[in-house]
Amino acid sequence: MSEKTPVDFWFDPLCPWAWMTSRWVLEVEKVRDIEVHWHLMSLAVLNEDKLDELPADYREMLEVKAWGPVRVVIAAQEEHGREVLGDLYTALGTRIHNREEGPGRDTVAAALKDVGLPESLMDHWDDTPYEPQLRASHKEGIDKVGQEVGTPVIAVPGADGEQLAFFGPVVTPAPKGEDAAKLWDGTLAVASVPGFYEIKRTRTKGPDFSNL
């Protein structure tokens, strides 16, 4: 039997589009021979040098809501192992996005409880000694695709052995079954073309979590 193809996925739990893409990748895991490995990135880190250029409401979201959850998640990784990230992200995303509980302290604390992680991890909400690890994880992902994109970042082994990385795909709702497989195959096909950078069209609706 061949080994599963490793798929590295960088996420920020606040991003609804990354959440949608992550559920698609888990669907792909059922129909293609892949294994997803989760990594943390941070919209707060990504945008910290350009806050003055951002709309006021988005800037406020980054300053007020974005740091706490990723600090807690990186602490969970460092103290309990990277293998907890997948389940913790699922618990966080389900509460933040599907149930519309928002990314506050109570939501994150409840998500920790959902997956059996200690509430003491909430001590990292306002400050954490693991910020260097958070920034290193973020840099690892963003270095693969460049500063002009956000979350999610996906990386897979290319034909030449080097990682092939891309932002997205941004899709709603998350495809299921063979539709998920077709999107996966097509994404890998276009991303593998040397010199290919972007396909894009205007979004006409927001994230649809109805089938998650």
From TrEMBL:
InterPro entries per record: Rv2466c-like, Thioredoxin-like_sf
Name used for this protein in its record: DsbA family protein
Coiled coil, from the record: none
Signal sequence bounds: none
Classification via Gene3D superfamilies: Glutaredoxin
Native organism taxonomy: Bacteria, Bacillati, Actinomycetota, Actinomycetes, Kitasatosporales
Species this protein is from: Streptomyces tendae
